[in-house]
Every structure is written in structure tokens, then in C-alpha cells.
């Protein structure tokens, strides 16, 4: 137990010095494992883990979904989704913010990335918001919060990673995340309505589109909707594994790009290069987390903590609440995947000992990482959005995310109080 605590402390220090989290977990895990066993065993672990983590069929889902996201963004379907949503709701006060939430949800279904969603939607949505005199606090806060939908709405890379680490069904996690993702999108829109009711100058309404213009706008997104339905439906229907569905999604977005005539060899090469970079980063995080997890396991810290919690009189809800606070704190220091990989070796045995469903807990973890991504003082999404604009500050973004933080807290309370919000779809479709 002592070794585990020292290891965590050293790893946090290394992270604060700027060392990437993957390297920090790998270094601490390797040295800690050697001290707990012996150096020969540690080198043996180091020789086996990279191959065991990467060279497995199930892991191919990650580069395939990354490639799907690249093709989806570069083909322009994100801009089209935003434009279509604008046609339908843009004339209302805060309509562009609502459109941004819808577009973020659509983009989330392809990338599973919070940071990617925030950065791309800043480029797509903020120029139009400025034209309509939207206040920076609401507009940029909405973009930062909307980007987090990429973590919850399937197919989600953090969900895939959680499923692999905890041996949970990725298909069930996708099903479990769909309804909470829809509810969060609605809550974000409600937050926009509340803000615009309090401050009517925060987001003026735009021109109203005709019904013909609205339906015409849908012509540009029907292929995207069909593809999303095909990818998710093939998993939920039991026709394809997540890996096979990811291949369908990648090929589908590739065909869409060809259909739009914005594809050539150099562009394909750039897509592949970008996807490989993201995949390499994720794989290295997984390798580092696996070595660190081995160290934590041999230290017996998870077993000690789990037994203590199980044999104590602590209310289970209080334990879950403490875990949620830990995720909010870690959200100030690291990205989503790092948070999940760092905490699962400790939290999973505790959750199992308390008798909670691991699929439900996976959705709660994802939700808390969403909250951590926009929570002051160091919510990563807020810094991404604030760093991409010249006419506003990061402080404006942090002020703007407050209503959306409240919306996520409401969702967390609902999810803990009513677990079937996450478990209903897996129950009826499996």
C-alpha cells in the first residue's frame, strides 16, 4: 500500500514537470514493479506488455474509429450538420448554441474526442456567432461544453478503452451511453434557453428559414445519419463486432468523401498520418497504464482498499461521490483517457465489491470526465477554445461554461439516482 501511494505521488510530480502521462505511468510502473518483485520480472513485464496490449484484434477498433473521424471531419459533414441545425433552430434566441450542441453530438458519433469536438466547432460555429452578436461567454462556453459530448455519445474512444480494461461489453457500453448522451444534449439546450431568458442580449435570434430551406438542408446530412445508424445498429443488432462496425464506418466516411469529390492521394495520406498519430498516442497510454496497473496490483492496494470499503459502514453512495470528486480534480490535470486509465486499477475492484454494475459505472466515469474537461481552474476544453480565438479570453470561456456545468451535475444526480437511465437500453436490446 505504501509503495502504491509513493508511486502515485512520484507520478503526479513527473506530470507536473511536463512529462507525458504515458511516460510517467510507464516509468513509475516499471520501477515500482521491480522494487515489489525483482528487476528480471520487471524487464519481462516490459517485454510482454506492449505486444499484449497492441497486437490484439479488439484494439484495431481504435485506429479505425480515429480514421472514421478524420474522414468525417475533412469531408465537411460536420459543417453541413451545423448548417442544417442552424436552419431548424437558428432563428430562436441562442439558436446557434443549440445548433452547435446538435452538431457536436453528430460529430461525437464519429470521433469520440472531446478536444477534437471543441477545436473543430470553434472554427465552424464561432465566426457565425460573432456575426449575430452573440456574447463570447455564452457562445464559447457552449462550444467548450458541447465538445464534451464526444466522450459520451457512441462510438466513444473512452468507452472502448474502459470496456477493454474492465472486460465489459463495448456494445453494451455504447447502448448505455446513448440515452444519457441525448439527455445531456437536451439539458445543454435547456441551459441555453435559461441563460437567454435571463440575459436577452446574450444570444439574439437570427433570420427564420422557410420549411423548404430546412428540408433541403437535410439532404446534405442524410448520408451521415445513415452511416451512424449502420455503425451503431450493426453493433447493437449483433451483426458486427465493434471492430467490424468501425471498419464499416471508416469505409463509409471514405465513400462520402469520394462522393463529395474532395479526395485525392495526398489527402488520404494526410488522413492516415493524422490517424496514426492519435492511435500511437492512445496505444502508448494503454501500454503505460498496463505497466502501472501491474505495479498497483502487486502492491495489493486495490484489494486492501476494496476490502476496507466493503467491510466498513461507509454509505456506498458516499464512496461513489468521492470517486466523482476525484475525477473532477483529475480533469484539471490530464485528458480523458489518462484519467480513466489511471483510476480504473483502484476504482474497479471497489465498485465490484460494492455490487455496482460495471456498465453503469462506466457511463458515470465518462460523465465525470466530461465535467472535469470544463471545470475550473484547468478544464482542458476551455483552454483549447480560449486559445483559438483572438477576441475573447479563457476567463470568458470559464464564465460561459457555468450553466453547462450545472446541467452535467444534474445529469450526474439523475444517473446515480436512476441507474436505468444507462441500463435500460442494454436490458431491452440484449
Structure write-up:
The protein has helices at residues 2-16, 21-36, 39-54, 61-74, 77-89, 95-111, 114-131, 136-147, 149-152, 157-166, 170-198, 211-217, 222-236, 242-259, 265-298, 301-311, 316-330, 336-353, 358-374, 380-387, 394-400, 402-417, 420-429. It is globular, with a radius of gyration of 22 Å. The protein is 79% helix and 0% strand. The two termini are 40 Å apart. It has 23 helices and no strands. It has one domain (2-429). By secondary structure, the protein is an all-alpha fold.
List keywords for this structure.
globular, mainly alpha, 430 residues, 79% helix
Topology diagram in text:
Blueprint: H1 2-16, H2 21-36, H3 39-54, H4 61-74, H5 77-89, H6 95-111, H7 114-131, H8 136-147, H9 149-152, H10 157-166, H11 170-198, H12 211-217, H13 222-236, H14 242-259, H15 265-298, H16 301-311, H17 316-330, H18 336-353, H19 358-374, H20 380-387, H21 394-400, H22 402-417, H23 420-429
Helix pairs in contact: 1-2, 2-3, 2-15, 3-15, 4-14, 4-15, 5-6, 6-7, 6-8, 6-11, 7-8, 7-20, 8-11, 8-20, 8-21, 10-18, 10-19, 11-19, 11-22, 11-23, 13-14, 15-18, 16-18, 17-19, 18-19, 19-22, 20-21
